[in-house]
Structures are given as C-alpha cells and as structure tokens.
Amino acid sequence: QVQLVESGGGVVQAGGSLRLSCAASGRTFSSYNMGWFRQGPGKEREIVAAVSRTGRSTYYADAVKGRFTISRDNAKNTVDLQINSLKPEDTAIYYCAADYTPPGLIGLRVGTSNYEYWGQGTQVTVSS
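RE: above sequence
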C-alpha cells in the first residue's frame, strides 16, 4: 500500500513557475513507477509526466515537454514536478500516482488505469 499526498499548488500568472511535491508513505516506494496527471475543467484526466523506479527514465506529454521536469528521491519517498513557463491551459488539478512495477517490467506506462494509488490532488490555476 502506498499513500500519496501532494502539495505546492496555487495561483500563478502566466509565465510563472511552481514546484509540486508528492510525499509517499510506505517502505516500497522504490518499487513503483510514479506519474503526475492533471484534470482540467471539463476534461479527462491525462498524464503529464512519469518517472521510473530508479529515476533514470522519464516520460513527458507533448504539451509539457521542455517546461515540466519530473524527479524523485527514493531516500525521501518524494516525487516532484517542476513546472515552468506556465500557461492558462495548464490550469487543472494535479495528481500524483503510483504504478507498481515488478522487477521484470521495463518501460513507463501512461494510462490512468495502470496506476493503482492516487493522491487527493492539488489545484494549479494560471491567470492570463
């Protein structure tokens, strides 16, 4: 079992930056690939970034490449999302999620159904 708690959301002007953080409980954090998802008003939940168990592999959605950076610290059980050059269309609730990854499984999964554990979300609002 993994419990996830996000923090760091807020209201920011377009062009600004935020750093979202997700704290995980449990001793097996390093067994999980981790992802950040978002759900904007009237939209479906979508992945924005994912990071492998070791942190060596990452994935970014096309809409955020070059602006978002995902990182994790397995010693601290945290996964962060640095968001730069924010745009109004980035306004959404941002969720941290965990995907249990057996040792033999290679590659990052990006579907919401692959992630077993979710945080409660943190709101990011970008004003123009």
